[in-house]
Structure formats: structure tokens, C-alpha cells
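hey so u asked for the seq, here:
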Amino acid sequence: MLKKSSKTIYTTALSCAAFLLSTLPLAAGVAAQTGTDIETQEVIVTANRLAQPLGETLAASTVFTLDDIEASQAESLFDLLAGAPGIQMARTGGQGTQTSLFMRGTNSDHTLILIDGVKANTASEGFARLENIPVAQIERIEVVRGPQSSLYGADAIGGVIQIFTKQAARSDADAGFSGNLSAAAGTESTYNGSGGFNLRGDNTALAVNVSHHQTDGIQPIHTPTPSARTSAYDNDAASLSIAHEFSNGAALRGSYNLTDSQLEYDGGINNGESRTAHVGVRLPVTDSWQSDLQLSRFSDESVDDSTFASRSRTERDAINWQNHVQLGDNNAVVLGADFESEDLLYEMSGATQTDTARDNSAVFAVLDTQFALSNRSVDTTLSLRYDDNEQFGGETTGKVAVGTDLGDSMQLWTSYSTAYKAPSLVELYVDFPGFFFFGNPDLQPETSRNVEIGLDGNHGGARWSVNAFRNEIKNLITTDASFTSLTNVDRATINGVELAIQGNWLGWDTNAALTLLDHENSDTGAELLRRPNEILSAGISRRFQKLDVGVTWLLRGAQKDVDPVTYGTSTVAGNAVFDLALAYQLIDDLSVQLKIGNLFDKDYQVVDGYNTYGRTALLTTRYQF
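ran it, C-alpha cells below
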């Protein structure tokens, strides 16, 4: 049962969803794919670690293409991901402030973030610094909802998000020189600029991309003491990538990405640096066997210069080896091994650290099959992984998914999966004697069991999907009764339903996504914090010769939070925000875009005690050559 405090928003959301379903020949897939040809399915690699059409993964997935990202005119991942099915976002102020992502109601450190296959979750907080990942550097995003530890190990209780940065051109691209430039200016003294080029010969490609973002921001804190000034934010990013293909079909690739950021706030300055590098080789062993090896390094440093100055640095080296064997047209096997070595440096006045590193080794297998049963096609995906963690020993996770076609245009599937999350090195080994708070080296991994059923279809040139799930999480890490350390006490149960619809009605591209959650701490009966029970997003767009017009609507239900004055439980009211996006093609290679955020200047909160943007405007010019 949904809580009484959310019934009004729930009724509104359900009514809107019913209206869309009854009046539009819509359907499915994902809210982000508005401009995609409905008959052409995207190919996704994150769902099962092999390339598959989006509708054949037996997993709830969303894809953001480059066209989707540019059409959204989003300035941050907070703006881009907020309306996707199953995702709840929170941010403590404006651009550059801490951004949290709750996948299907799980904790912010329960979603694994990959950047070009490289794990970006920090060893200190356990989550990735989403606020510092520049949208201008992103080519594509794949979101896979539901536990994925059987493929990727720890940190995937809620799901996996893989971000693909702009890389050297693929093998089917034409030889030559191409590039792009963009410049933008907007409210809050916002200025953005980005550029990149791609140089390709017959077998070798080189790409360079740079971006800059700066804004004066907003006054982040509303309660209890309003901020005295705005939080200015700067972000500079650059990437270099190279790819080479050999005559025998082998391929070599490599990339280096760097991001530097600075956030000013009342009482201090935070400087962030992130570096991601990888080199990989793909070798066709036989016509049906392909082997991939990737070596990578991730580093993240955050330096906070304030009254309680601190510094944290994560360094992670990883080796990933994967083999894809195709057994005929209907059977595929993926076998592989992962190894990572993680180091943490954490410095804060009075803090002590008793351990700084840990290693993790793993082997995994995926079996994807299709067979006929009683004149009906049956698809199955089985995955199994064994992790050997230096601190916690062995952990085995698995997933089984079975699906079948209900005619030519509908598919039914169900899955069962297990997952786990290892405690962060800060939770285990960093003590804060000055605050009378201490790490707990006896903490155990959080674990989960997830049952899910999905139904998706394609009717009348439109696509739709429905997913229902139940995720039970045990050994949740929380503050102990004395408030001096952490302990494994809590359990959480999360039930949810996701509906996504997409199609074209009278020449208008339309999409909507509705997420309904019922979540609670099973030990206390309290709702989990900062996770609305209902989120509804909808969008409609159309091209009028050279003019593109798009309107999006995001509705959030009420949510529980922490009162910034009493530190007890508070409630943040539900809200609805409209955005308007316009784009005009001046000439073949030159366009201008205008994004008006919070069109009706709604006064609302996402996190209790923190301000959000009023009406904003951003004018962007794009040139491609």
C-alpha cells in the first residue's frame, strides 16, 4: 500500500498516465528515445556484457543516444537522468553541488557507474561524483535497472549506468576530418563552450574533445540559515582517444579523460580532479570467438578547503578480460575475469586511517540461449559470478531470466537475481575522534534478492513496456544506537512498477515514464529518505521545417527527508516542473538552441533546506564540420 501522504500525487500521476495510454498510440522502450525510429532498436552492451538489441536483453534498460542528449539541452546529469524510468535524483543546490542518484529506491551507493567500462564509484563515499561528469563529453548512456552483481560484482544492487564518452570514430565511419563547436550563455552568468575533432585514416582514428562550463549558480541553502552568496561552479574537461584496426580484424583502442572542477560555497571551496584512462585490445580468435582485454586506471581527488578541511583520493587499477563465443545463431557464451586493486587516501583534521587498500578478483559467465518450446520461442539468460574480496572472502551472485514472445509484437519475461555491496574503506577504517565517530572493520556486505516481471510490446508503430519488481535488501549499513559508529542492522523492502511509453501521434513525437515505489525500512517501518513514491515524466516534440519544439514535464511525489533544524524526519512536498526546448537550423551545419528551464518559475525543493533553480534560460549555438 502507498502511504496516505502520497495519495494525491499518486492519483494525479496515474490519471495522467491513463490519459496518455488511452489517447496516444504509444509504447515503450524508454522515455529518452523520442527521436528514434520506432522500428529500429538500439543495440546495448551493458545489459549482459554482449551486444544485443534493446528489446532482447530480458532486462529493464534505457538508452540515451547523442541525439537525445543534444536535444535535451541538459547541462548536467541531474537534468538529463531525472525523468528516466526507475531513477530518483537529488541535489543540494545548483550546478556542481552533491548529486545523488537512487536507482529504484536503493541507496545512492547502490548503483554502479561505469565510464567507458571503467568503474567510477569512489572508495570514500562509495558513489560516483555525478555532478562533475560533463554532459558535453558524453556520446551515449546505457541504464540497466535491477541488480547486476552477477555481471559486474559489488555496488550494483540498484543497477548499472554506463557512460560512453566521445571516442575516436568507429570502423564504419568515413575517412577524413570532422568536428564540432558549441558555445552557450544563460542566466546565473552561465557560459559553456565545447569543441572536438575526429581524424580518421583507413585504419586509424584519433579524437580530441574539450569542454568548459562556468556559472555563478544560486544560493544553495534555504534553511536554517540562508546562504550569504551564490555557489559559483567551474568545470574543465578534456579527452583524447585513439583506435586502430589491423587487417586480421584485431583492434587496439585507448583513451584518457580528465576533469577539473571547483565549487565555491559559504565557508569554503571544493576542488575536484578526476582521471580515467584505459587501453584495450580486441582479438578475433576464430570466426565465432572474440576475446577482449582492457587495462584501466581511475583516480579521483576531492579537496575541501573549509573549517573542517578534508582531502580524499581514490586510485583504482583494473584488468578486465572477456571472451564472447557465438554457438550458432541462437546461443552465445561470455566468459571472463576481472581484477581490481583499490587505494584510498583520506585526510581530515583529527581523522585516522587504519587501512588504505584492498584487492578483488572475480570470474563470471553468461549464457544467452533461444529455443523452441511448444511452437513458442523461449529466450533465457543465465549469469553467474564469483568474487574473491581481500577483506570479505568469497561472494557468489547469480541471475536467471526467461522470456517468451506472445505473438509477433509482445514479449513477456521474468527474472530472479542476487547482488551485494561491499562497505567503503571509509566506513571500515577511518576514525573521526574529534567527532566521537569511528569506522567499523567488522561491517559485512549488504546483500539483496530481486524478483521481476516485464512485459513489452510494439503495436501500430509504437512501443511500450511495464516492469514490476520486489527487491529485498539485508544488512543495510546504518549508524548504531550510540551514534558513534556504523553497523549492519537495517533491512529494506522495495516494491515498484515502471511504465514507459513512446510513439508518434499526429506528427508529434511523444513519450512518458511513470515510476511507482513502495519502500520502507523493514525494521522500523519508516520510508527511505529522498525517494519519492511517484515520479512521472512526459515529453512532446515536433519539427516544423527548420524549427524543433519540445516540452517536457517532470512530476515528483512527496518524499521523506531530514529536517535541517531538528534533524528529525520531515516531508518535502511534491512538485511539477515544465521545461521548453527550441532548436532552429540556420544552415546545414549551424543551429541555435534555446532551453527555458522551470518554465512557470515554480518554487519547490528536492532536498529539504536547499534551494532549486527558478526560471532559467540558456542559448546555445552549435556548428558541425
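Residues 4-624 form a domain with the Maltoporin; Chain A fold (CATH 2.40.170.20). Confidence is low (pLDDT under 50) at residues 1-39.
lmk if thats what u needed
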